[in-house]
């Protein structure tokens, strides 16, 4: 449910409509004087846009730093305590008295049916919303008391919908870490399983992506997005169903490499495809905003008629 790099670009909850309005407004202001056919209706629209712009500039972001917020060097311990969260716009209760503790270095997979609350966990960890009931903490510091910039810079989030820039492959991977060395870019691409394809492009890592360059497949975009998350070297990394466009074999291989590479890091992998989770420390199954099963693959397979074992059996042979 989270789109693109929403959390980076949209800290102020700017709606697309507002941005479009803003562009219309700026275009009007820069209209050449020779085009004096500026009609009354355009003036009215400009005035309306001005009003919207003023309203937009007055918007106070709902999530902002508390006065007591500090910089904290995070180690990757995560705790949700009795968190009940309702999306303010829809009134949907996405998490219900939700408790979860993940220790530094643990690799935890979260699965469950559509709408069960998986992405909401990521949204709340990034503090895209304030939590009113219960508490979320990292390394025993409530996330409300961690500066937003500090929190978000130490969590890598790979969204479901990939957002790439019209720039080189290399710059897309090192986005956010402009000083990252080429070796680090290549290593991240190798782990994400996209290095061979990049090397096959006419200009390798210098190849432009987008209208003026190569058109990437959905799977290539997803793997570049994973490489971008890895290069950040975060305390916590969250993969949100970000391998849906990759075939089952490739997904398994990437998961295997990630498991090794992320040894000292905390990782949360949100996925519908359970077959790639065999070696995870813990698998959590969500339903209707609550944990309904958790354990290793072997433990969950023993639950007769359990959600996980059913899902696993269904997926065997289908991918
Ligand atoms: N930005 C949002 N605004 C309002 N309601 C939302 C928002 N995002 C999710 N929801 C609702 O909250 C509930 C939990 O959604 P969430 O995205 O966390 O589920 P999910 O398990 O990640 O689903 P999926 O597997 O389809 O991504 C759903 O009912 C969903 O419709």
UniProtKB/TrEMBL annotation:
Stretches assigned to the ABC transporter domain: 78-313
Subcellular location: Cell membrane
One Pfam family in the UniProt entry: ABC_tran
Listed SMART domains: AAA
Keyword terms, alphabetized: ATP-binding, Membrane, Nucleotide-binding, Transmembrane, Transmembrane helix
InterPro entries given in the database record: AAA+_ATPase, ABC1_TM_sf, ABC_transporter-like_ATP-bd, ABC_transporter-like_CS, P-loop_NTPase, Type_1_exporter
Lipid bilayer topology: Multi-pass membrane protein
Transmembrane regions: 22-43
GO molecular function per UniProt: ATP binding
Top-level taxon in the UniProt lineage: Bacteria
Identification of the protein by name: ABC transporter ATP-binding protein/permease
Organism per entry: Niabella ginsengisoli
Lineage, uppermost ranks: Bacteria, Pseudomonadati, Bacteroidota, Chitinophagia, Chitinophagales
